Amino acid sequence: MNKRRVVVTGLGATTPLGGDVESTWAALIAGKSGVRTLQGEWVSSIPVSIGAPIAVEPIEVMDRVETRRLDRSEQFALIASREAWQDAGKPEIDKERLGVVIASGIGGVITLLDAYDVLKTKGARLVSPHTVPMLMPNGPAANVGLELGAKAGVHTPVSACASGAEAIGYALEMIRNNRADVVLAGGVEAAIHALPMAGFASMKALSTRNDEPEKASRPYDINRDGFVLGEGGGILVLEEYEHAIARGAKIYAEIAGQGLTSDGYHIAAPDPEGSGVKRAIEIALADAGLTTKDIVHLNAHATSTPAGDVAEASALVGAFGDEISHVTVSATKSMTGHLLGGAGAIEAIFVVLALHHRLAPPTINVDELDPAVKLDVVMNVARPLPAGPIAALNDSFGFGGHNVVLAVKSYEGK
Amino acid sequence: MSLSPDAVLAGLKEIVEEVAGIPAASIELGKNFTDDLDVDSLSMVEVVVAAEERFGVKIPDDKVTELATVGDAVNFIVNAAK
């Protein structure tokens, strides 16, 4: 049986680079950094004072009453979903054929911590009745599902920094398996707060380049020293191909396959052999009916940590062999910072747009390429991609040893 | 401490506007919290807690379900504060 094909018919995002997809993409192609010095009394209490907050605060685009009963991550999900749904043309569809899969790495952690402060200082009576719906990790998916009346299923895969990509893969299977015709899929994260930042800092995972925020996220550069925590999220409208054609939808690209593996190696460190990543790539290619020859572009996980970037680069060389020479690699976290559960989603959007616009985003701050990175990195300036049918991959990995690779094909009008 | 019904109504208007986003001008004694003002069960808990704080009264959980309208709430709070 032929698989039901899945195409992308709508995009939405709120990121450190812009309050929507258009402004985010423009800043990304221009090579702008979304990293800045963080504001707030708590910042001085931790060793890292930089991050990548979203460019447009939710209160600027949402009703005040709505914001007070939604965790920040839920606000991001609704903002990005409204844009994506609008972009898809707000299709009138049977709600039993409409699904939502939105991931988060940590869930409503800011709500949880703020509510605990209220409990300790003011007592249980003043803990908001909205606390639990706001802190539950499925809250972003649930709120979007409620707004659209989705009844095919609302889901939240959690795999740390691979969560957003895993959500898109889950949505792909929902449509392939005929559970749904249209699924809003993506990921969000809102964790710029003293506690998660202190935890990441204790792992020595964060860059401490506090004096040069815009230079701090520098994947593949020899002087990288850790990731920069970002926030925001992205949502894609995935739609069964015939369904999209029948309603004359605009089609950006095709989500053609996914590869999921786990390292079985360490809770946080990457497997230096990279075999899990290599297998995920092989599985994604086979699932998409592609070979390494077809891939012209790859959005790397590359978070700017000393160990992670090299492990991924080595795994890519292992998976592609000589074919790696025609793969232009972009590490967009150099501009957005690391959105954790939102990362795989916004990066999938970047891959879709790279194929759609035939333009690979730059990797900024590569002053001196690490010689251990034997990849064709799109350094500092965006680079054109070839015409005709092309394909790309999106890598996402998460603490716990989760590997998710998505394969995306350009849409050529058929 | 005694409270005037007008003072309680004015305070409740502010609380409901803050919690549910209902313009204070449209909040009247005869309005039903659920049917007219769209205050759901979770938000009603917020209104009750805010009212207790503001007026220095205790509104037991088993009484909350009896407070269908704004007028019911005003009467309860005025009596509780006597």
Describe this structure in words.
The complex is a heterodimer of chains A (414) and B (82). Chain A is of the alpha/beta class. Chain A is built from 14 helices and 15 strands. An 11-stranded mixed sheet of chain A has the order 5-4-6-7-1-8-15-14-9-10-12, with helices on both faces. In chain A, strands 2-3 form a two-stranded antiparallel ribbon. A two-stranded antiparallel sheet of chain A has the order 11-13. In chain A, a hairpin with a 3-residue loop joins β14 (391-398) and β15. In chain A, α11 (275-288) crosses α12. Chain A is globular, with a radius of gyration of 20 Å. Chain A starts with 5 loop residues before the first strand and ends with a strand. Chain B is mainly α and 82 residues long. Chain B has a single domain, classed as ACP-like (Non-ribosomal Peptide Synthetase Peptidyl Carrier Protein, Chain A, Orthogonal Bundle), CATH 1.10.1200.10. Chain B has 4 helices and no strands. Chain B has helices spanning 5-20, 41-55, 61-64, 70-80. In chain B, α1 crosses α2 (41-55) and α1 crosses α4 (70-80). The radius of gyration of chain B is 11 Å and the shape is globular. The mean pLDDT of chain B is 92. Chain A binds chain B through residues 63-66, 68-69, 125-126, 128-130, 133, and chain B through 19-21, 42-43, 45-46, 49, 52-53.
Primary descriptors:
heterodimer, A: alpha/beta, eleven-stranded mixed sheet, two-stranded antiparallel ribbon, 14 helices, B: mainly alpha, Non-ribosomal Peptide Synthetase Peptidyl Carrier Protein, Chain A, 56% helix, ACP-like_sf (chain B), phosphoprotein (chain B), acyl binding (chain B), PP-bd_ACP (chain B), phosphopantetheine (chain B)
